[in-house]
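Input record, target 12 of the design panel.
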């Protein structure tokens, strides 16, 4: 912004979450902007906007409350107030808008000016009636307010070419787009035969009717399973330790969350898997082997 001679103020989300300016001096500047927003035109740029995909500080703790009783995150409240002034444009930037469910995306879209068409008869009397939202992830990149930028897209439409390749200009400096060919390698996950029925039968389900909360632990285990045997072992140990064990899941104090299956039932199916995981050697990890093949393949391609 400085190189473009554009005046700007920078704020950290942690600052916007503070109670008042006594706790964070920079909040005074934010409040000044809020009060004088009608006198100027502002562009709010949110880098890593996925950090705003949770509207409420504790989704699990507040889940039993009605929507109007939930306590909105302070940063979210402050941003919405500024955007709703009508004199602000918003740019959200993220490489990972989706984490657990479609609400992650819709929560971020809520921060854009509400200019979507509404099917409501009197949208002006309904909160967020004209907010941008989607019902399916495939709709996201087709929204008029959304753009998907990939490296090939940027290279094709914004790149320039010289004798060394395709580059993007940054303040007179050439940043070259790497000329590599990526190949996907598919390898089986460890202990698929043992763990697939455990997932299918709901041994990781929490005692909630809402799938978003019921599958919260299952989602974490799937991520760990795709990461490494060590990460998977750590998560499974926490499942068999809950409740009462040293590695148990610590839910919110006022939360009565529990697994659908009892601790003994979970231990019966998971301890044999844990025993196999403990015996798994480094070279037996198929993902590790796949990574080595990938690195060697890429090296040969680059060397030629």
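The sequence produced for target 12 reads:
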């Amino acid at each position: 912004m400085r190189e473009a001679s554009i005046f700007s103020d920078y704020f950290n989300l942690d600052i916007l979450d503070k109670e008042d300016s006594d706790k964070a001096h920079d909040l005074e500047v934010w409040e000044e902007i809020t009060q004088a927003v009608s006198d100027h035109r502002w562009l709010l740029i949110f880098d890593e906007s996925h950090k705003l995909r949770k509207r409420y500080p504790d989704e699990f703790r507040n889940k039993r409350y009605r929507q109007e009783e939930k306590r909105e995150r302070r940063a979210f409240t402050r941003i919405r107030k500024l955007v709703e002034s009508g004199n602000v444009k918003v740019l959200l930037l993220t490489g990972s808008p989706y984490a657990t469910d479609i609400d992650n995306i819709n929560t971020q879209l809520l921060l854009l000016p509400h200019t979507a068409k509404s099917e409501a008869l009197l949208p002006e009397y309904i909160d967020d009636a004209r907010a941008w939202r989607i019902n399916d992830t495939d709709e996201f990149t087709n929204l008029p307010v959304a753009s998907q930028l990939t490296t090939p897209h940027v290279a094709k439409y914004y790149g320039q070419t010289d004798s060394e390749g395709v580059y993007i200009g940054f303040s007179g400096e050439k940043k070259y787009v790497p000329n590599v060919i990526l190949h996907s390698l598919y390898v089986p996950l460890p202990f698929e035969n043992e763990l697939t029925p455990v997932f299918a039968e709901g041994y990781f389900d929490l005692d909630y009717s809402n799938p978003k909360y019921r599958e919260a632990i299952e989602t974490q285990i799937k991520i760990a399973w795709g990461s490494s045997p060590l990460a998977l072992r750590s998560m499974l140990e926490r499942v068999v330790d809950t409740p009462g064990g040293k590695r148990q899941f610590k839910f919110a104090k006022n939360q009565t969350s529990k697994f659908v299956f009892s601790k003994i039932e979970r231990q019966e199916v998971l301890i044999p898997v844990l025993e196999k995981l403990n015996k798994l050697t480094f070279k037996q990890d198929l993902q590790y082997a796949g990574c080595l093949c990938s690195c060697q393949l890429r090296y040969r391609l680059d060397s030629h």
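The chain has three domains: 13-142, 149-179, 192-288.
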